[in-house]
Each structure stands twice: as structure tokens, then as C-alpha cells.
Amino acid sequence: MFGIGLPELIVILIIGLIVIGPHKLPDIATALGRAFGEFKKATEDLKSSVSKIEKDVSVDLEKPDAPPAKQEQSGTATAKDTVKSDVNKTAGGNPVGKA
Questions:
Q1: How many CB atoms lie within 10 A of CB 29?
Q2: Are the C-beta atoms of 25 and 16 separated by less than 8 Å?
Q3: pTM for the whole thing?
Q4: First-to-last C-alpha distance (Å) of the chain
Q5: Element (H, E) at 19
Q6: Angle subtended at Cα 19 by Cα 16 and Cα 25, rounded to the nearest 5 degrees
Q7: pLDDT, tens only, 34-75
Q8: 82 vs 76: CA distance, rounded Å
Q9: Quick one: which of 52, 79, 84, 95 is 20 to 30 A from 33 by CA?
Q10: Alpha-carbon torsion 12, 18, 21, 22, what sign?
Q11: Reduced to 3 states, what is the DSSP secondary structure of residue 65?
Q12: Is residue 19's pLDDT more than 70?
């Protein structure tokens, strides 16, 4: 898992017995096991939260946006008015369709 083989584990346990003592070593090992378990659970929760956020963002990106279409329509109306005024100017100031 961490690149630690059996000989390295034995050395770590012997050092632990010498430093901590045989009476407290099981308690410390239990506490370390719980800490690693909680850490693993926290990382899984974080991964699931991130994947949920990514899914929500991708769904939001796939939805079409209605407001830009309305802006394009107003731009078309402005262009239409501009063309109408240009035609009226070339017609001598008389509105098109009225003689």
C-alpha cells in the first residue's frame, strides 16, 4: 500500500514497543486505525460532493439560455428600423408605402 513490506513493518513495531511500551501500544494502534478510517470516510464524502457538484454544473451548462435569444430579437428590431430609415432617406423623405 505505501511500499512497506514485512521487514519494515517489523522494524516499525519493534521501535513502537521500545518507545511507547507494550501496554499503550494497542491503544495507540486502535486510535490510529480509527483516525485512518475517519480520514478515508472524509475523502470519500469529499469525492462524492465534488462529483455531485460537477454533475450539477454540467446539467446547468446543457440548458439553453433564453435571455440571449431575446437580446438578439431586440437587435433584429433595431436593424429593421435602421433599414427602414435608410430606405425612407433614399425615397426623398417620403415614408415607404405612402406617396
A1: 13
A2: yes
A3: 0.44
A4: 91
A5: helix 6-20
A6: 50
A7: 999 999 999 999 999 999 998 888 877 777 665 555 555 555
A8: 10
A9: 52
A10: positive
A11: coil
A12: yes
Domain span including residue 39:
24-62
Residue (of 16, 38, 41, 39) closest to 27 by Cα position: 16
Residue 32 domain-assigned? yes
C-alpha angle 1/26/10, rounded to 5°? 45
CB of 20 closer than 8 Å to CB of 28: yes
Distance between CA 86 and CA 37 in Å, rounded?
A: 76
d(CA 22, CA 32): 16
Number of domains in the chain: 1
For the chain, give percent helix, strand, coil, nearest 5: 80, 0, 20
In a domain, 7, yes or no: no
In a domain, residue 82? The reply is no
Cα–Cα distance measured from residue 91 to residue 85, given in angstroms and rounded to the nearest whole number: 10
